[in-house]
Amino acid sequence: MIKKIIPWGIPILLLIGWQLFTKLGVVSSKILPAPTDVYWAAVHLLQTGELAQHVWISLWRASAGFLIGGAIGFLLGLFNGLFRTSEMLLDTSVQMLRNIPHLALIPLVILWFGIGEEAKIFLVALGVLFPVYLNTFHGIKSVDQGLIEMGRMYGLKGIPLFLHIIFPGALSSVLVGIRFSLGIMWITLIVAETISSTSGIGYMAMNAREFMQMDVIVLSILLYALLGKLSDVIARLLERRWLKWHPSYENVS
Amino acid sequence: MIKKIIPWGIPILLLIGWQLFTKLGVVSSKILPAPTDVYWAAVHLLQTGELAQHVWISLWRASAGFLIGGAIGFLLGLFNGLFRTSEMLLDTSVQMLRNIPHLALIPLVILWFGIGEEAKIFLVALGVLFPVYLNTFHGIKSVDQGLIEMGRMYGLKGIPLFLHIIFPGALSSVLVGIRFSLGIMWITLIVAETISSTSGIGYMAMNAREFMQMDVIVLSILLYALLGKLSDVIARLLERRWLKWHPSYENVS
Amino acid sequence: MKVVKTSHLELVNLQKSYHPTAVLDRLNLQIHKGEFIAIVGKSGCGKSTLLRLLAGLEQPSGGEIRLEGKPLTGLNREACMMFQDGRLLPWKRVLDNVSLGLKGDHREEAEAVLRQVGLDHKKDEWPAKLSGGQKQRVALARALIHKPSLLLLDEPLGALDALTRIEMQSLIEEIWSFQRFTSLLVTHDVEEAVSLADRVVLLHEGKITQNIPIPLKRPRKRDQSTFASIVNFILEQILELPRAAQGRGLEEETGRPFHAVPSVRVSNVD
Amino acid sequence: MKVVKTSHLELVNLQKSYHPTAVLDRLNLQIHKGEFIAIVGKSGCGKSTLLRLLAGLEQPSGGEIRLEGKPLTGLNREACMMFQDGRLLPWKRVLDNVSLGLKGDHREEAEAVLRQVGLDHKKDEWPAKLSGGQKQRVALARALIHKPSLLLLDEPLGALDALTRIEMQSLIEEIWSFQRFTSLLVTHDVEEAVSLADRVVLLHEGKITQNIPIPLKRPRKRDQSTFASIVNFILEQILELPRAAQGRGLEEETGRPFHAVPSVRVSNVD
Amino acid sequence: NSKSTSKDVKQTVRIGYQKNGPLIILKNKGTLEKKLQPLGFSVEWVQFQAGPPILESLNAGSLDFGRTGDSPPIFAQAAGSSLVYTAVGKPKSDGSAVLVKENSPIRTLEDLKGKTIGFAKGSSSHYLLVKALKKAGLGLEDIKPAYLSPGDARVAFEQGKIDAWVVWDPFTADAEITAKARILTSGEGLATDRDLFLASEKFAKEHGDIIKIIIEEIQNVSDWANQHPEELTEMLSTALGIDKASMKLAVERREYGLVDLDDEIIQEQQQIADTFYDLKMIPKKVNVAEQIYHVDKKDEKR
Ligand SMILES: Nc1ncnc2c1ncn2[C@@H]1O[C@H](COP(=O)(O)OP(=O)(O)OP(=O)(O)O)[C@@H](O)[C@H]1O
Ligand SMILES: Nc1ncnc2c1ncn2[C@@H]1O[C@H](COP(=O)(O)OP(=O)(O)OP(=O)(O)O)[C@@H](O)[C@H]1O
Ligand SMILES: [Mg+2]
Ligand SMILES: [Mg+2]
């Protein structure tokens, strides 16, 4: 029981400190609203149904982009990890693309995809692709060569070799990539949703930023934090399920 | 020799295709400038010394932020990977912070750090922190427990245990984190350099976007790609140097 | 007077070197179909390397391996190897480790072979929870269930106690005599070599220095006097080698008479 | 008539179970300072578990271990263990693996011990490039250089050929007789146990079923007749156990006379 | 011009709007849709945070029509974008201002020398600041610029990270009312800060009739807005999330409506362009007159 509470200790302490800080008037509440103000903003947005709508549409964009980008990143990582030729051909290009900021790309994205949903999903997919790629690639590269040899000796090749040996061996690293890309997913969305949006958490946050609705800004930050925790919990559940053979993950709570 | 060229095959092919594409007028050069136009823009910016100045100041911000954020992320990852209590206390908080987009944070950053260099360096540090953290944490968690046991048996504890066993065991994963964070570093900079900047590549890119200077936009994208490749080359050199015992990294070119 | 048998495997001037040092130096050996060969030799003399070459996991630096007359290139699909270090998949339970690579449902078969190696009660454990010898027996079970036409065993019983060891030896012999695959067994236990093999090959400094047929009937009994004298003869060879072979070529070895066990014909490197 | 020696280690009702199954069941044993104990037993009987308990790497489920009278909690800082699976650091070259954990400059010492295990020519190799037996010898070298007051060896010579094995045995004996640390050696080779140990402890189904002092003088010769008869006696005990111990408690074992080697006094579990 | 009149072909006109200005009023009133429906046109409203991305989208062909402030089109023109000016709003210089804190020692424009001043780069405030400084005999090089979007600048302003802030309504009004800001100078006599309505050249060429209707409707909602300040205040303060009191002030000091795109207006816009050229913010001189699309004269031409 107590173990379930401890991880929340620091967030809760911060919250209390913040409430005191603002209510004592150290900064103007116009600039940094108190948690209670944020709470009321949330209640208000919930009642009008706006919040649910924003979260919902963002979730849709996020998952579409995540699935596309994650799949491509995973496959690329796979091929480049498995085949030297493909690594030689593609790795340099991927590494070059990796560093291009989404924000700088927006003009080109508008050119290619217009200003509709495709553009947003493309950006999310692009953002998600690289962490998945990099960690898959690394995971596959570090699978014990001895085990692969063994599998080949026992008649595994192609897909069975991959399913039984390479994938499970790379899994813990792939999961790190997924975990990270779940974060990048939300971060990208805020950029994607600045392209001509009227909905989504990113829109909500950026709009609030333009019009300095500090309570909404803080609300959206908290929302991101919660979503972060949520995707982390999911990733951990997967880890617990898939890595139960691994002594280090055995007792992860 | 040929092996050195192949990785550049796709980028070069793209470049040629793009030049043909634009010069044949399939897209108007107002929308997408030809590589040669971009080249001239680069030459122009180089001659005025602007480009060097932008790159230089960005490099400075990037490295300051990278060092600070990388160090914090590494230490956090270390402690959370090594000590259950610290993991319990901090991991949830870090995972929550991880997902907050920089863009949404800008109002708060201005609140805390003002509009000077500190704000920019803080943002870069924040961006760099998480990939380093996550991969260090994962790396340490996946160090072979048997080797740690062995080390303790042979009288290692504390820092020597870390230096001789835990760190080398986690290194390949840490390097993935560093590689990734080098990318995030540039990506964050474009956001950081929208806060009241008059210099830096991010400023150059966003400024070009506001003023629709497509040649400069494309130039900055290329610049990011090159910087990406550069940091990748550095990471690979480190890998070759530090992981030469690892059969999978042995023949990496 | 040699009986003409089909030659399953043939090593022709086989060489392997890891950059500066030569590990195997122009080996020549013929192995017949269904034959059981034991390979003995000092630690680091190249036994595992030889098996890896036969499995096609390494490419020779010179010479070649002929598999039914055809030179071996790439992985040897007929072979199955039990590695010196076990190599169980940590993410598969014992039973799944054993049935790895089998097509179709082989659950019962896998359970049966696990029972034979005495580990049916561990079938749902993770490998990380097994003892050293248990891991080795799982690896052995996995090699035995595969019914290859060439079985390569690299010190399969190194971590087992005397009793379990003898049980496993009879298991291997039983399965072999039933299926008649060609077998190569690397072992450091000369008794084991003599009790299982048709021929014992002695590897020393990259060369085959002895190639001793074991003419004993099966099942072999360790308390037979011939058994003991063959074991002693081979041990002597091994113990003598460091002094004997130094500076001396293989040619000089060739004519050496077999004093200790006169009833046993010795064919040297063929 | 027992000579009163300082008792270095004492197991008192030591128990260890991995969730459903009990591995070690109320062990009692006294080990004197400087004594050399060999532990034999079937694969999976808990030998490694016992060593891990003594090293403080596992905590007992019941009973306790007393180290010079004080109960052991946490890591045993006096002990040094050679693990069954070697555990070389893949990122350190052989020499650095050997000198791991030593304070100060021990390069020469490490080179000397590597020479003793016959691996000075491999001192700058990565462990991944060593053969199975070479890895084991590096791990042995590492354990021997540390000069602990309690040395735990878990099948240190399992992957070695007969000749190298004997060389390593004399090396261990030599270093032990010089430094007089307390030694526990797990082995599946009864001859090895008899040639090295002051006492051989037989573990079976979680209990100590035999505790046999070896009264032979050192250096021991394998061709002595007493040597052979002790080995045979122990082997017999092991071979008989599966039948004999089933359903029978330790109490019934206690009174068993030692037929095969009458000149040897047997003290059972003390 | 048969294309736009044929009723069987379903077509859409894509309009980019921001959360302030007449277009959002037009969207909320829903009158444009009614007017265009008989012509076989439907309307797609696309919201943007700022002017430049609207022009970006116009240029890329993702939009047909949009509104921005006075400066962004100049940059677009300098970049060779093929857009045309179709209509111009009335001046709203009362709402644009240089703000300082109530108790700030800055009393005159001359006091701005050496101070840190926040404004959005390339926006109408940028131009206003240049003009204000010029009036005091200063140049941009005499102050420390802090390029910030309105929301970020507000935080910096309240925290005292910038000494002065150049911004437009409703930010000006909100700062005056809730952040104790003092107007150092408004845009009066310095810059007009008009709304500009732009269309892509292609759309203007093909669908002049549609543009004409849109502009008529903008004029209509502007008239409505001028007559119904309370309703407008209500509408905008919900849309922007800004205090009603602030919004009221902003609404009251602004007059909605369009003016003729005559030579005087073109000259005014050309002056902004030349100022930015002199500041080296655009690489080449632009000629505003080249890109003017005259709705009314169009029928006569054909
Ligand atoms: N971590 C663990 N979790 C569960 N069971 C374990 C664990 N470690 C060992 N065991 C079980 O405990 C028993 C004793 O293991 P141990 O490693 O001590 O055997 P051993 O005597 O060293 O055998 P061997 O000679 O084969 O190495 C085995 O049955 C093993 O499966
Ligand atoms: N990948 C490698 N790179 C370099 N040298 C190697 C490599 N693999 C093996 N060697 C060397 O080749 C020699 C033979 O190794 P091998 O593993 O075949 O020995 P072995 O006969 O199996 O010994 P053991 O009985 O100890 O297992 C050893 O000296 C070893 O150090
Ligand atoms: Mg070997
Ligand atoms: Mg063991």
Automatic annotation (TrEMBL), chains A, B:
UniProt key word Transmembrane: yes
Membrane topology type: Multi-pass membrane protein
Places the protein is found: Cell membrane
Alphabetized Pfam families for the sequence: BPD_transp_1 (PF00528)
Domain ABC transmembrane type-1: 55-235
TM region positions: 6-26, 63-83, 95-115, 121-140, 161-178, 184-204, 216-238
Entry keyword Cell membrane: yes
Highest taxon in the source lineage: Bacteria
Main location: membrane
InterPro entries, sorted: MetI-like, MetI-like_sf
CDD domains the record matches: TM_PBP2
Keywords from the named record: Cell membrane, Membrane, Transmembrane, Transmembrane helix, Transport
SUPFAM superfamilies for the chain: MetI-like
Family, as annotated: Belongs to the binding-protein-dependent transport system permease family.
Protein name: Aliphatic sulfonate ABC transporter permease SsuC
Organism per entry: Paenibacillus puldeungensis
TrEMBL record, chains C, D:
CDD domains cross-referenced by the UniProt entry: ABC_NrtD_SsuB_transporters
Keyword set includes Magnesium: no
Domain spans labelled ABC transporter: 9-230
Record SMART domains: AAA
Keywords: ATP-binding, Cell membrane, Membrane, Nucleotide-binding, Translocase, Transport
The protein's name: ABC transporter ATP-binding protein
GO molecular function, one term: ATP binding
SUPFAM superfamilies in UniProt: P-loop containing nucleoside triphosphate hydrolases
Coiled coil feature spans: none
InterPro entries referenced in this protein's UniProt entry, alphabetically: AAA+_ATPase, ABC_transporter-like_ATP-bd, ABC_transporter-like_CS, ABC_transporter_ATP-bind, P-loop_NTPase
